[in-house]
Predict the 3D structure of the following.
Amino acid sequence: MINKPVVKKMRIISPVWIVPITAVIIAVWLAVQAQLDKGTEIEITLRNASDVMAGQTLIKLKDVEVGRVNKVTLSDDLKSVTLKANIDRNVSRHLSKNTRFWVVTPRISAAGVSNLGTLISGVHILMDPGEKDGHATHFVGLDSQPIMKSDEPGTSYIVESEALNSLDIGSPIYFRQIRVGEVTGYNLSE
């Protein structure tokens, strides 16, 4: 008499599958976390990106790193440079149509030397969030530091003169022998 094998279907998952399933769950969780931590990708167009390097140039807000430039490319017409960067998730909600970016480089003027630290640390890009107005991810960078940042109190004035004489960017402005401001820029009238 030959015994017939009895085949029973197992309703429980084999313990062998616990390890691969756990590994897949962990991998998916890590991928989601990496995507969430990545932040928002933005694009900044500049006329000149002197010393800006992909993977090294930082984007800062109030001297705190809030992003990094990932890619630097020339525009199709070769007249500008396009930077692709990631902004931290916590800061990206402050991006708006009024957000401004500019490259910080060392500057020597009549008032003295500024941004000297960039000689050691390298150039970086500063961000000024500006007043909240919608959301944006494409920005046209400024050619130079703005006269005033959005969170600075004060007023800017335009003064016309026949000659520049000894005035330069950074030259102090006095009222009753008290320094009340400085020259932030100049150009020829129309």
